[in-house]
Specification:
Number of helices: 11
Number of strands: 11
Strand order of the largest sheet: 1-3-2
Largest sheet: 3 strands, antiparallel
Helix content: 40-55%
Distance between the termini: 55 Å
Shape: globular
Radius of gyration: 18 Å
Strand content: 15-25%
């Protein structure tokens, strides 16, 4: 019916394996060129360009040109959240190799979900915030308390600037592997950035997994939320 959302256009985009793989890679919140995406999805560059053109036409992906290079990124956090939710309700593929098993375990432990800290590390951090009264979770709505604001400020994060950023300040994001929430919104992205700047974690460019550094192991072992 005219005037209604075209769900068929959406499901058509999601029906292609290569397009889904490209979208999954872009969930790291970074910019990637065609060659990079083609290599990671094991398709030809011209095929990757074709898929990216379709994703751009749907306003799911945007491009940025710098010199001769064109880089692609997700248009919004909403697309990453849609993919994460679809992962939660999708059947699980059978693991057929040791490498796949190792990769999955790395993603389960910690990963980037559109620049949120996801996986067990992210979920454990989120529920530490809840238990210490830094955030209040009610009916799937999330609110930062005065205690929480003081905590993030104690880390050196500029809360006033984060609050002024365009988009949602704070929200729970349903975690694909843990089946519960991690910290989302602009505050979630700012915390992930903080962890990178403090060298608490290192992002794996191949699969979105993160590994903690020695400093990160100490930080997350002793969250200092009290």
């Amino acid at each position: 019916m005219k005037g209604f959302p075209d769900l068929q256009a959406t499901t058509k985009v999601l029906s292609d394996k290569s397009r889904l793989e490209i979208l999954t890679i872009l969930m790291d919140g970074k910019y990637h060129n065609v060659s990079e995406l083609a290599k990671k999805t094991k398709i030809k560059s011209h095929t990757a360009s074709y898929h990216l053109k379709q994703l751009c036409e749907l306003n799911w992906v945007a491009s940025y040109k710098q010199g001769r290079n064109v880089y692609y990124h997700l248009c919004s956090e909403d697309i990453a959240e849609l993919l994460e939710k679809l992962m939660n309700i999708s059947p699980v593929k059978e693991i057929s190799s040791l490498n796949e098993s190792i990769e999955l375990e790395k993603l389960k432990k910690g990963r980037s979900c559109y620049r949120h800290l996801a996986g067990k590390i992210g979920v454990d951090f989120f529920y530490a915030l809840v238990q210490k009264g830094c955030v209040k979770l009610e009916n799937n709505n999330l609110e930062l308390t005065d205690i929480g604001e003081q905590y993030f400020e104690s880390l050196g994060m500029e809360m006033n600037l984060i609050k002024k950023q365009q988009g949602i300040f704070i929200k729970p994001c349903l975690d694909w592997t843990e089946q519960t929430f991690h910290l989302g919104g602009n505050l979630g992205k700012a915390f992930f950035r903080h962890c990178e700047e403090k060298n608490y974690l290192i992002l794996n460019k191949e699969n979105r997994s993160v590994c903690l550094t020695n400093a990160g192991e100490i930080f997350f072992a002793d969250l200092k939320l009290s």
